[in-house]
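ok so I'm stuck.
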Amino acid sequence: MVKKIAAAILTMFSITVWAEPQIKFETSIGDFIVELDSQLAPITSENFLHYVQDGSYIGSQFHRVIPGFMAQGGGFDAKLEPLKTHPPIINEARNGLRNDTATIAMARTANPNSATRQFFINLADNQFLNPTQRQEGYAVFGKVISGFETIQMMAKQPTRTIGHLNDVPVTPIVITNVTVIVD
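replied:
not stuck anymore, here's the structure
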């Protein structure tokens, strides 16, 4: 009888577990999985998921990789042509998430509210990218939860300058597939 009462009480007061979206990236050098933080970065996460779900990250490449800093991708196709973007989003850098190793953040221009589709994965704790009283910072919206060694392998690839783009991997690192595995 006590077990039935305890079960009834637990059922009445059960907490719904919120599963954050997880996205699997397949690239030409390996796979990795990112878990978004849609609670602390709702606008950024929704924006990122829009590009994932419309399939436009497939065929794009990591066009800027700097060892000890970050790997940036999502904005250029295999020929380094810029990909179509949706309107920019507001900067959610003051959400409490930090630019620590293995986190994913939005790339932007000098305008804090200019992020569209390009993202980067931190290869180190990049505290200088976090917001301060003097700067808005770069919005972190998730973290790599599996396959971070793929990102580290990106940083070991030789790079070159092509036109106005610096630190471009000599052998393109192409995103071959992107799948939402937990929604």
